[in-house]
Design a protein that fits this description.
76 residues; mainly alpha
């Protein structure tokens, strides 16, 4: 059985990978989120990524902010 922690780690790795591909650090992510009307601090984003748990809405906001048009969930 897959635990919540495993799912959280997968989401964290997925988003961190997308940020890394684009060379975007948390500070720039804060700026990009602000451009689409999402107010976050670098500290809050760091905490959310460390936990690996955040809403689907926040995940979509990140993907929009980094201009991610296509997301591959699994390479299998």
């Amino acid at each position: 059985m897959v635990t919540d922690e495993t799912w959280q780690a997968k989401v964290r790795q997925l988003l961190k990978g997308e940020l890394s591909k684009r060379g975007i650090r948390y500070r720039e992510l804060v700026e990009r989120l602000a451009k689409i009307g999402v107010k976050e601090t670098e500290a809050n984003i760091t905490k959310k990524f460390h936990r690996g748990s955040f809403s689907a809405v926040f995940m979509l906001q990140i993907l929009e902010a980094i201009d991610c048009k296509k997301l591959t969930i699994s390479e299998e």
